[in-house]
Fold each of these.
Amino acid sequence: EVQLLESGGGLVQPGGSLRLSCAASGFTFSSYAMSWVRQAPGKGLEWVSAIGGSGVSTYYGDSVKGRFTISRDNSKNTLYLQMISLRAEDTAVYYCAKLSRRGIVSGAFDVWGQGTMVTVSS
Amino acid sequence: DIQMTQSPSSLSASVGDRVTITCRASQSINNYLNWYQQKPGKAPKLLISAASSLQSGAPSRFSGSGSGTDFTLTISSLQPEDFATYYCQQSFSTLTFGGGTKVEIK
């Protein structure tokens, strides 16, 4: 069964840092691009970041560029999101999602994790 | 960046109704358009990819059409389990979501 399991969310003060992880199973992890998508309370979906299968190509939304870093460890089938300089507006459920097309950062998000909540507050 | 605009932002409908949701891109995205369904407290679920390709397991009452800048998600006969929020998403250039359409019970 294809599965994604996020962890690492929690309460952090403004200006603080947090690292999210996403453990993947049931598919050839290194063959697919992966992404983070977030959803603020009561709001819509916002694409955050994506990474190619090899980890070389990375992409970021404007709201997180320069503060968030996406990475992956294909030997551990794990995706990461390092977040620094966190702001109140970063408060959201963060979902890990698999992209449907092999090898490139494109296509649909065909598998989603259950999400992990990040709350930025003093 | 490509902007995705969904309309309406919400709608009320009855079981059995035909429902249409539209999504407009700020520039042509060919058919690089996907649709998702999200229920409260749950992760989104992919319904339709490449504008009109129904995902395995998705009910046949869902259909998608369009290309270029204008796209449509149609539910031919609304069922109780279809009350949810629907999002479009483009993958022509990076990855952007529309603002969502909440389908509520009338």
Amino acid sequence: KAGVTQTPRYLIKTRGQQVTLSCSPISGHRSVSWYQQTPGQGLQFLFEYFSETQRNKGNFPGRFSGRQFSNSRSEMNVSTLELGDSALYLCASSKGTSGRNTGELFFGEGSRLTVL
Amino acid sequence: DQQVKQNSPSLSVQEGRISILNCDYTNSMFDYFLWYKKYPAEGPTFLISISSIKDKNEDGRFTVFLNKSAKHLSLHIVPSQPGDSAVYFCAASPQGGKLIFGQGTELSVKP
């Protein structure tokens, strides 16, 4: 069973640019969550999608957005990049069938974004 | 505000001894708790979980303890092995809510 796949794995952008990250969940998983990992801050929740609808949202500015497609694949976008957006962005999927996104989240390896 | 806190950024333990990783939370609505392990260049992987109706859950060398009155949980690894060296994240969730992670504790198990 293929795991969660994130692309690209590494990317470098400059301030002011925008970036789109992609996540393909495990087959059969309908919930996709995005997290930002920075040193000292741990994993900060960005948002969660279930059946193409945003179900939960973290405390990030509107520059961070996401969406989910009918095949459960998800993308997140960050516009007007700032230096502080440099981080590892992790995507996680789960079955999420009960409306309670607990239990195991299966994480991808992440997309390492560097903003210069 | 940090609803889930891991106050020790790092921990060093000798091989064969017990590793104890601690986690505190502030939200009394949390009713499900998990630990994840993360190696460099990999995504976090699920380790063990506990529901608020229990105070202990054991899986092999890993045991999680939950003290609801103190809003505290801990992960015990006995005996610790060099392969356990990783960053450990605790996480908590309220009913129907998102999973909130702590900052992580980097465990180093020395041979």
Amino acid sequence: GNSVTQMEGPVTLSEEAFLTINCTYTATGYPSLFWYVQYPGEGLQLLLKATKADDKGSNKGFEATYRKETTSFHLEKGSVQVSDSAVYFCALSSYSSASKIIFGSGTRLSIRP
Amino acid sequence: EADIYQTPRYLVIGTGKKITLECSQTMGHDKMYWYQQDPGMELHLIHYSYGVNSTEKGDLSSESTVSRIRTEHFPLTLESARPSHTSQYLCASSERTGMETQYFGPGTRLLVL
């Protein structure tokens, strides 16, 4: 079946450090891939998405590239800020999962000033 | 900005009480979902609906029930709350077509004593 595996946390970085959160997936067909972010006390919100191979999603300085050959969708940011502290979820959706979203287990990110 | 609302945001209640968690959206979305989020952050789909009068159980078995009488409204009910129901409950919605983005409400944090 479809699944998402993401880097375990928590991840703690200093402000302005480079961020990578790894995400790999297993899916039949051609899934859409997402990164969602959950700030403290809030629901999830879409950070970025990519719908086909080699697409790059980007938003708020974050980027992720849909790599079909490595079945990966790693999240990166060149210079993190304290305000980026949150939980990040990698996710996929495909017709074989009846269009439901399959979420990874989440990675908690803390940024030190 | 997504327009999806959940009430109450926080609820503390005694064992055996009946509770209803409200979820409404003003985007005209056909699909709606309920997730349970455990303290380890992982999300579990407990119910979903593809439209009025359509409800399905999700991947995680739940003692709760849902109804979908109106497009914009998807309440979740627990007939007899127990301490094991203590969790955060997130509601989400999406458009009907394809592998679309889900929009989340702010969540209801439930504590059953």
